[in-house]
Specification:
- It is found in: Cell membrane.
- Belongs to the EamA transporter family.
- By secondary structure, the chain is mostly helical.
- Helices cover about 75% and strands about 0% of the residues.
- The chain has 13 helices and no strands.
- It has helices at about 5-20, 25, 35-50, 55-60, 65-95, 95-105, 105-115, 125-140, 150-165, 170-200, 210-245, 250-255, 270-285.
- Helix 1 packs across helix 12, helix 5 runs antiparallel to helix 9 (about 150-165) and helix 5 packs across helix 10 (about 170-200).
Length: about 300
């Protein structure tokens, strides 16, 4: 791995670890209006990201064609607002492991979808690594009870996870990681407010309590500002296929932090799954190379001993 690939891998890994550790913050926001919480999270993140967007940010946004703005709106709707809504809806009738397992299949889908969109074949090493990551994520989380609705919403969550990576590819180059993060957070804040007004009416937003405010602040500053920028910087360096491999670290980070707050345990299944995720990430990212099968050596006839003649 060269320096660019190494840095990109570390950035993508850090982003996914931050997201996995954020599940603790999510657990204390169960009574807070969903859309209002998402609005506060993304609006604050946008305000913090705008000064970091760099020079010429306004000009780059003005030069973005209508198709680019439509893609930003779809990215926010599918990969951010819609993804979180799908997970919450799935967990009403399914255990949390069900959407977690399906979301863990995102590396496989991206490893196939992105090359097909580019008109090329999937990379064998990335596909093998993605499969190992998906199996590892399943081992970490296990499978839980569900019904048809829970399974359907879990599939919607998988679509959202895939969309968060794939939809960002065409707008990442003209905007850059920081401006892209700021713009998509602003769009997601507007979409969250509209969703809240539509679903919850006047009760869509309220003043958060002390613990809720701390959790929302953590999500906005750490998970969104730092996590999004690291994710898109990593994806810029190693591509969407390899970056999505690191999403397997999300359930691993969640499993490792769960015992700290008494919401879970870390046992043999989690250890085996974590090892599979690590091996899959290493294989797909290029850190671990599969040796090429050596050719069978040709057997040469023994040279005759001239002294016997």
């Amino acid at each position: 791995m060269n320096t660019v690939t190494t840095r990109g891998s570390l950035l993508a890994a850090l982003a996914c670890v931050l997201v996995g550790g954020s599940f603790t913050a999510n657990s204390v926001l169960g009574d807070y209006p969903y859309a209002g919480g998402q609005f506060l999270r993304y609006a604050l993140a946008c305000l913090l990201l705008v000064p970091l967007a760099g020079r010429g940010a306004a000009a780059r946004l003005r030069s973005l064609p209508p198709r680019g703005w439509a893609r930003l709106a779809l990215l926010a709707a599918v990969g951010m607002v819609g993804f979180n809504l799908a997970v919450l809806a799935a967990e009403r009738t399914a255990e949390p492991a069900v959407p977690g397992v399906l979301v863990g299949c995102a590396p496989v889908v991206v490893a196939v979808l992105v090359p097909l969109m580019d008109g090329r074949r999937p990379r064998r090493a990335v596909l093998y690594g993605a499969s190992a990551v998906a199996v590892g994520a399943f081992s970490v989380q296990g499978w839980g009870r569900t019904d048809g609705a829970g399974l359907a919403f879990s599939l919607c969550a998988l679509v959202g996870e895939v969309g968060f990576a794939v939809l960002a590819v065409p707008v990442l180059r003209p905007l850059g990681p920081r401006l892209l993060s700021a713009a998509v957070c602003g769009v997601a804040a507007v979409e969250s407010a509209a969703t809240g007004l539509l679903l919850d009416g006047s009760a869509w937003l309220r003043r958060p309590g002390g613990v809720e405010a701390t959790a929302l602040l953590w999500q906005a500053v750490v998970v969104t500002v730092i996590g999004f920028v690291c994710w898109y910087m990593g994806m810029q360096r190693i591509g969407a296929e390899r970056a999505t491999l690191f999403s397997g670290l999300i359930p691993v980070a969640a499993a490792c932090t769960a015992p700290l707050v008494g919401t879970g345990s870390y046992g043999a299944a989690q250890a085996v799954g974590s090892a599979l995720v690590g091996a899959g990430v290493a294989l797909g990212s290029g850190a671990l190379r599969v040796p090429v099968r050596l050719r069978r050596p040709r057997v040469l006839p023994e040279r005759a001993d001239v002294s016997s003649w």
